[in-house]
């Protein structure tokens, strides 16, 4: 397995050495503790935290030097998957440093090592003497695009290595974003967040919210009186959600006409807490039958909804129905230890034979890996990983020609369609609110990934600034993808066919109840596909007071409602099609309406019509399936010698899953104000290093207007410029009983397809191949 830290081969790009100042900056020795977190502390329960230690260890990886395309064989049994439950600690590695400090090489786009995070944390702490800090993140500050272009052209122009950090002062709840130079061991900048801006909710913040609810005596009393819950630690489950609409005043106080009570909890104010900004988390509550951790708690939702303030570290309110409703307690389970207890679903494994289907590559993989640099079948790229976006692709080239400079998923909006109190506040911006990297899984061989797998680790930090390694965060492997091309000359029966192989780069994030599975596919014909699969569990609730059947949801189990909702994704595609000067044309296929004269005398005419999108406002576009709408990203400089058209890549929406609408909330809603990016399928902006997140840098409790809507107000020219494509796509989810207790994957995604980029089929050079391990099971004695 490889990590994203370590040596980068000179053949894959020039390297840099860690400076001596970085080694001198870290001075504390390493210690390991497994202590559980108490409310208000800032060590993540279950992780192995480490105090800051000297810069002496960076994990290096074995490079896979294979350049061949080895066979994919279905047959031999591979290493079995460990299906047993594991504590998070087993997948998170924090290691002490050796006593010596070797000279190490680091590519500018390698994520920070644990050691570099420790150095950065020391520099940040020194900027706030005497303060206790809570870290929201410590991450690589990527060099600017101009710096990386210069570095790629001349390895001597090494960008300065920097880290960014966001911290909250425990004494005042003031927040600061800092950039530190790891080369110079200095703080480069320190800027306070505006009064209304809130950091994302880190994993430790989510843990703290649950602890605050479970330790509150008034909540304990309500749970006992209303539902008979006495063992809170074992029975109660709290799902932390950012508060979409943060105002908790006015008509929401006390009893209301909707049959709800909003209990306002007294908050003890003192000089240190009175002026703190509210940092709110709502916690949807569930119970586990008999306190069994394997029980599906989403089959047992409660109506009680506490809201906590992380800054004041207390519960501030709790909404509930006036009369305690009946809590559904039917066993509706998927866990292997609980399937036998199911009330009405299958309670034993199916007995119909399912023969093993195993993948093996006897000659090893066809890709080569050196640090974070990958080569495979004319493709070359670098990968990165951070707490917010998760997997990032850099400098993607085909046969040495640039295609995409940087690609990642940068935001999600997940609004729920129930307007009843309290569900108007149920809307998550999962990338900005929680961070996909923070939510990433440690992947398992044979379960999450099949075949010959190369894993990459990810390195992040907890709220104490303690670095940790998430093992196997990224999976890379090859897959058979069916036929790539085929033709039979019917006159003589001769067949020419080539099977398609694709390189898969993936990671999986668990965001509270949902699993999001993210896949980049690189194809042998130059195509790039991006696919998102959605699984996990539905966020369930009881019927609202007075409801006999759900108006905005579906009953998915006895007494269990699942609301209609959307998942709107936004991919940021910094394209570089044959260079950094590109333009975008919208292409519609339209009929010739004129049916008289010489233009369309038989009425069968239809054609593709292209329109250049010249400015940012003009380039805010919606998909249009009835016109087969696509968007060409064209080179401003290179022409195809065959067609005479500009060399291009074509963005095709909804090539995975059905076509879906843009954001369905009303234009006046706060969801729409915050999620403007999801109201259009396409945005095109002029490149700016600071413009990364389309809903703004800070989405928690935001009021909207940041990100794309602010940037496009300038209405900059996007024709023949360095441009960024923002593609929004998603899923409208009307739940089904079949989605419960665990959801079969829903799929959505898009394709970037070469269009006039090549002079012909670029996969014509694939040699004929035949699997020698395939067998015929229908015609006895027939080997073909």
**Helicity, as a percent range:** under 10%
- Rg estimate, integer Å: 27 Å
- Please give the number of β-strands: 38
Strand content: 35-45%
Coarse structural class: mainly beta
> Any low-confidence stretches, pLDDT <50, length ≥5?
1-67, 74-104, 246-257
The whole-number mean of residue pLDDT values reads 86
Largest sheet: 12 strands, mixed
Number of helices: 9
The best one-word shape is globular
Distance N to C terminus: 38 Å
Please outline what is shown here.
The protein is mostly beta strands and 784 residues long. Helix content is 9%, strand content 35%.
Give a description of the structure.
9% of the residues lie in helices and 35% in strands. Strands 1, 4, 23, 24, 25, 26, 27, 32, 33, 34, 35 and 38 form a twelve-stranded mixed β-sheet that branches. A hairpin with a 5-residue loop joins strand 7 and strand 8. The longest helix has 13 residues, at 114-126. The protein is globular, with a radius of gyration of 27 Å. It starts with a strand and ends in a 29-residue tail after the last strand.
List keywords for this structure.
9-stranded antiparallel beta sheet; 9% helix; disordered N terminus; single chain; 784 residues; 12-stranded mixed beta sheet
List the helices and strands and how they pair.
Layout: E1 2-3, E2 16-17, H1 20-25, E3 73-74, E4 92-93, E5 105-106, H2 114-126, E6 133-141, H3 145-153, E7 162-169, E8 175-181, E9 186-192, H4 203-214, H5 217-227, H6 232-235, E10 236-242, E11 254-255, E12 260-264, E13 280-287, E14 305-309, E15 314-321, E16 359-360, E17 368-370, E18 373-376, E19 379-386, E20 390-398, E21 401-415, E22 427-428, H7 430-433, E23 454-461, E24 467-489, E25 494-511, E26 514-523, E27 528-536, E28 540-541, E29 553-557, E30 560-563, E31 565-575, E32 582-591, E33 606-613, E34 630-639, E35 646-656, H8 670-674, E36 682-686, H9 708-711, E37 723-733, E38 743-755
Parallel strand pairs: 1-23
Antiparallel strand pairs: 2-5, 3-16, 4-24, 6-7, 7-8, 8-9, 10-13, 11-12, 12-15, 13-14, 14-15, 17-18, 18-19, 19-20, 20-21, 21-22, 21-31, 23-24, 24-25, 25-26, 26-27, 27-38, 28-30, 29-30, 31-37, 32-33, 32-34, 34-35, 35-38, 36-37
């Amino acid at each position: 397995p490889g990590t994203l830290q370590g040596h980068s081969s000179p053949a894959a790009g020039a390297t840099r050495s860690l400076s001596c100042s970085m080694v001198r900056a870290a001075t504390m020795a390493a210690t390991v503790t497994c202590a559980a977190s108490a409310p208000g502390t800032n060590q993540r329960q279950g992780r192995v935290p480490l105090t800051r230690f000297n810069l002496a260890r960076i994990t290096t990886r074995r490079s896979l030097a294979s350049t061949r395309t080895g066979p994919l064989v279905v047959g031999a049994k591979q290493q079995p998957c460990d299906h047993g439950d594991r504590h998070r600690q087993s997948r998170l590695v924090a290691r002490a440093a050796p006593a010596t400090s070797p000279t190490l090489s680091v590519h500018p786009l390698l994520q920070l090592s644990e050691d570099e995070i420790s150095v950065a944390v020391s520099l940040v702490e020194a900027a706030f003497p005497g303060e206790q800090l809570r870290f929201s993140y410590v991450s690589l500050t990527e060099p600017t695009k101009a710096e990386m272009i210069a570095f790629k052209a001349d390895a001597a122009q090494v960008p300065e290595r920097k880290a960014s950090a966001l911290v909250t002062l425990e004494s005042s709840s003031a927040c600061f974003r800092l950039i530190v130079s790891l080369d110079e061991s200095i703080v480069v900048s320190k800027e306070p967040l505006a009064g209304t801006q809130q950091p994302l909710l880190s994993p430790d913040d989510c843990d703290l919210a649950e602890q605050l609810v479970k330790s509150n005596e008034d909540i304990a009393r309500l749970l006992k009186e209303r539902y008979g819950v006495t063992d809170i630690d074992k029975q109660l489950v709290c799902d932390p959600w950012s508060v979409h609409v943060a105002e908790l005043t006015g008509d929401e106080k006390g009893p209301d006409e909707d049959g709800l009570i909003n209990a306002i909890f007294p908050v003890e104010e003192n000089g240190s807490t009175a002026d703190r900004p509210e940092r709110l988390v709502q916690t949807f509550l569930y119970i586990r039958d008999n306190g069994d951790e394997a029980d599906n708690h989403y089959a047992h939702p409660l109506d009680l909804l506490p809201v906590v303030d992380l800054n004041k570290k207390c519960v501030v309110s709790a909404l509930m129905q006036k009369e305690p409703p009946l809590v559904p307690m039917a066993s509706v389970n998927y866990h292997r230890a609980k399937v036998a207890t199911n009330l009405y679903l299958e309670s034993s494994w199916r007995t119909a034979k399912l023969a093993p289907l195993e993948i093996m590559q006897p000659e090893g993989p066809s890709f080569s890996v050196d640090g974070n640099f990958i080569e495979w079948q004319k493709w070359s790229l670098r990968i990165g990983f951070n707490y917010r976006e998760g997997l990032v692709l850099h400098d993607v080239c085909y046969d040495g020609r640039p295609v995409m400079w940087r690609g990642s998923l940068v935001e999600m909006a997940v609004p729920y369609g129930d307007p009843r109190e309290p569900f108007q506040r149920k809307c998550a911006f999962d990338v900005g609110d929680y961070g996909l990297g923070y939510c990433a899984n440690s992947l398992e061989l044979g379960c999450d990934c099949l075949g010959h797998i190369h894993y990459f680790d990810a390195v992040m930090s907890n709220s104490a600034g303690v670095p940790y390694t998430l093992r196997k965060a990224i999976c890379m492997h090859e897959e058979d993808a069916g036929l790539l091309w085929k033709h039979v000359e019917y006159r003589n029966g001769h067949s020419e066919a080539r099977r398609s192989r694709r390189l898969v780069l993936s990671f999986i994030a668990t965001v509270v109840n949902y699993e999001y599975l993210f896949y980049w596919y690189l194809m042998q014909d130059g195509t790039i596909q991006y696919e998102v699969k959605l699984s996990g569990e539905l966020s369930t609730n009881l019927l609202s007071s007075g409801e006999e059947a759900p108006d905005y949801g579906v009953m998915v189990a006895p007494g269990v409602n699942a609301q209609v909702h959307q998942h709107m994704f936004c991919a940021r595609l910094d394209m570089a099609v044959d260079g950094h000067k590109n333009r975008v044309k919208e292409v519609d296929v339209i009929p010739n309406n004129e049916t008289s004269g010489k233009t369309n005398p038989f009425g069968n005419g239809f054609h593709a019509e292209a329109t250049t999108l010249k400015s940012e406002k003009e380039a805010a576009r919606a998909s249009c399936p009835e016109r087969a709408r696509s968007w060409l990203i064209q080179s401003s400089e290179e022409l195809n010698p065959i067609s005479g058209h500009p060399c291009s890549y074509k963005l095709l929406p909804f090539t995975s899953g059905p076509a879906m609408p843009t954001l369905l909330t009303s234009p006046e809603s706060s969801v729409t104000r915050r999620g403007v990016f999801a109201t259009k399928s396409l945005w095109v902006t002029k490149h700016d290093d600071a413009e990364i997140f389309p809903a703004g840098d800070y989405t928690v409790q935001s009021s909207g207007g940041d990100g794309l809507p602010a940037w496009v107000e300038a209405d900059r020219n996007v024709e023949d410029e360095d441009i960024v494509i923002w593609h929004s796509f998603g899923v409208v989810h009307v739940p089904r009983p079949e989605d419960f207790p665990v959801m079969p994957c829903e799929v959505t995604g898009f394709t970037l397809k070469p269009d006039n980029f090549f002079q012909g089929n670029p996969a014509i050079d694939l040699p004929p191949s035949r699997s020698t391990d395939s067998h015929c099971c229908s015609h006895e004695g027939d080997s073909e």
